Amino acid sequence: xxxxxxxxxxxxxxxxxxxDTVEISGYILCGRDAVLPKVLKMIENGTAGELGVELxxxxxxxxxxxxxxxxxxxxxxxxxxxxxxxxxxxxxKLHLGKGQLxxxxxxxxxKYNSVYAVIPPVTALLGAKTSExxxxxxxxxxxxxxxxxxxxxxxxxxxAAHGRSIYD
Length: 168
Description:
8 strands; fumarase
């Protein structure tokens, strides 16, 4: 088991390989199809600093945050998958979700030294490993707003790294 703490360094991201099992601790961003396009607009407009969190070395979990907890959504939804390359370019090192990504997306992860990890849909387990929740932006989206959560040893499996995918 590889223990990762946010922010994730370039070296740590480069050392991860398809099939590695990881435990992630620290603060991570949570967003899905309603909010990730809004975050991309902030990056394009140069206003991402208003989020109050540095994107370099950050983790994005493809999920909503609700009183029931957090659980992965499909990362291959158009709005989510199309955000992976630009978010990686902006400094995101790890994308958490579920499902197979397109070959082009896997290649973009490699280009920006970022990785994708699949996380099993284990909402109760993840809820017990989440200690803080804060809405960072777009509160009008409710549970689909951009959240920052503090996690302790979130389990995941690296699903795409260095141009390879576990789905190949």
